[in-house]
Amino acid sequence: MSSDEDEAFPYEMGHFIYMPKRSVYCFTVIMSKEALDKAGILARILDEFSRREIPVVHILASRPRHDTKTPIIVSIFVDFTGKPIDAMELKRCLLGVPYVNDVVINGPLFAGFTAETTLFPLTLLGNRAIVLRKVIYESLLTYLDKMLGSGYKALLYHVGVNVGRDAFKDHEKIVGRDPKALTTLLEILFRNTGYGVLKILELNEEKKRVRVRVYNCFECEIFKKSGEPSSSFIRGFISGWFT
User: Fold this and answer.
1) How many distinct structural domains can be found in the chain?
2) Which residue range(s) make up the domain with 206?
3) Residues 36 and 85 in one domain
4) 3-state DSSP call for residue 135?
5) How confident is the model at residue 1, as a pLDDT?
6) Is 66 within a domain?
């Protein structure tokens, strides 16, 4: 459940597909940056699969960056189950599409599972990023809680304050000093990185007062049965950012 104002849907991350009992392939199409300025290129690529009646089960595209020479990469996961398709012949057809420089084919690594292998490292706004699944960050935070006891919350809060300050400096480099742009970016990134859904209810620069509400906080979710406030890192992060 999201905030009382928004409807939200889970977003499954990962450069792979797992469809048990299916024969799934990944075609990673590497295109020159000029493809961004041409209409219909992606349609022509997908048409090669459509004409052969090959279902497309997932599409993963790299985000274009005009300040680099990084090519445009589109990974297309398709279901070959029961279809006598020649993958190499299909690759040759894809290479005939304008602005397509290369095609990398990845077949099933085990039953129903295939992965994209050309996209690394994971980045967000140009910075390297990592993903921690709940099984990992829950283990990390609960072990810290057991090892440090009452000092855990204070430590995590002060770490959050410093992280928040550094995050603000980074956001300022992206959008400048405009308060509206800064707070909008904060809300978007807070949500997109999985921290939770942040709503800024009040921002008074003259009184130096801010009031926010966080829905679905990842930190609170872990300790929701404790009956105590548990958003130590998130509270610190928000305090540091607005400071």
Assistant:
1) 2
2) 134-242
3) yes
4) helix
5) 47
6) yes
pTM for the model: 0.84
Q: Does residue 171 carry a pLDDT above 80?
A: yes
Q: Among 95, 120, 145, identify where a domain stops.
A: 120
Residue 17's pLDDT is 95
Question: Phi, psi (5° rounding) for residue 45?
Answer: -65, -50
How many C-beta neighbours within 10 Å does residue 93 have?
16
Question: Same domain for 84 and 141?
Answer: no
Beta bridge partners of 104: 28
- Tokens representing 22 are 């299916």
Residue 8 lies in a domain: no
What tokens were used for 41? 């290129």
Using DSSP, state whether 57 is helix, strand or coil: strand
β-bridge partners, 83: none
Question: Tens of pLDDT along 119-144?
Answer: 999 999 889 999 999 999 999 999 98
Report residue 65's pLDDT band, with 50, 70 and 90 as the boundaries. Answer: confident
32, 69 contact by CB (below 8 A): no
Q: Could you tell me if 45 and 90 are in contact, meaning their C-beta atoms sit under 8 angstroms apart? A: no
- The last residue of one of the domains, among 79, 96, 120, is 120
CB 60 within 8 A of CB 15: yes
Asked if residue 127 is part of any domain, the answer here is: no
